[in-house]
Amino acid sequence: MRVEIDPEVFRAHDIRKPEVQAVFRLLETFDVGRHDWVIDPFDVDDFAAFLPSHFPSLAESYAAMARLASKREAAWTGNDQHVSIVVDTDNLVDLAADLSQSAVVVVEDLPSDGDRFLGTLIEVFGPERLRQAYREGWFEVVHSGGTGRMPDVAAAAVRRFLRLIRVVAFLDSDRLTMDAPGNADKVEKLAGYGAHVHLLAWREAENYVPDAVLRKCVSRAAAARTLHALHQLRPHQRAVYDMKHGFREGVPPAQRDVFADLDEAVLEVLRDGFGRNVLVRLSDLRSELAAADFEAVDRGAAADLRALLEAIDRLV
């Protein structure tokens, strides 16, 4: 995040130990690259004068860090998605606590949605800053055990923060048709607790998985035929097809209008779906994937995945 410290913090003559400790915690986040320090070149001297009394052994290195940050700020174009968080004398201790702990991403299932799906997206789509945050543990992915428990788990995560809530929840929409509300009720509840929420536009994470992975989910003999059948689906059909289980029990009543124009032969090929290990295969093959593989599924779907990562990146 972009973090600005009000220069009055450095000019205060009655600064107490908790405030000094809070400043130190913030400076450490800047030093390791967790957050970007927004400092005006004209405020560097005030900060440098503050250092000898409070951080004598680190004064030289911190002053150099401030000068570098001010040069970066002078060159900043303001084109990214991050807004600046302003730390002042009133909120210093609370915001230092919030910014120095890990952000939280709440998912339905940690192994599938967290490690396999989100982990792959970050490696393939994520900017370097987000990939670093994932490696360094600057955000924690938390298991909720399903959409029903997600609001309670998110609420507990929200309570970790004093002023700046850095909690994102993302969940499958579970839509059977693209105009269905899906899990919109869960979104409202999560947002009510203060969490930032991303509801996947398509049915489940598996619907976004590219062909290079799906061909590994069926037998070699069936791969070409199954993928050809999948390609007969239009985007609004691909978006809600049950990728794991297919049409084993026939087309659900709620989806009969959606798939009414599909040839019976196509439906038969897609009857068994791609199995329960789609996200396992996605994770296994992440090093071989590129953003173009997801774009080939559907540009709108790829944009949805990028929006999810942007929501996380803004809070990390």
Structural write-up:
The protein is an alpha/beta fold. The protein has three domains: 2-100, no CATH class; 103-204 and 299-315, 3-Layer(aba) Sandwich (Rossmann fold), CATH 3.40.50; 206-290, no CATH class. Helices cover 49% and strands 9% of the residues. Helix 3 (44-54) runs antiparallel to helix 4 (59-75). The longest helix has 17 residues, at 59-75. The radius of gyration is 24 Å and the shape is elongated. The model has no long low-confidence stretch (mean pLDDT 95).
The value of Rg in angstroms is 24 Å
Reading the helices and strands in chain order gives EHHEHHEHEHHEHEHEHHHHHHH
The CATH class label of the largest domain is: Alpha Beta
**Number of discrete domains:** 3
The main sheet comes to: 4 strands, parallel
Summed over residues and divided by their number, the pLDDT gives a mean of: 95
Kindly estimate the percentage of residues that lie in beta strands according to DSSP: 5-15%
- Low-pLDDT sequence parts: none
Q: Output the structural class.
A: alpha/beta
Kindly report how far apart the N and C termini lie: 6 Å
What share of the residues lie within helices?
40-55%
Strand order of the largest sheet: 5-4-6-7
Number of helices: 16
The CATH architecture of the largest domain: 3-Layer(aba) Sandwich
- CATH fold category name of the largest domain: Rossmann fold
Which overall shape is indicated by the principal axes computed on the Cα atoms?
Answer: elongated
Tell me the number of strands: 7
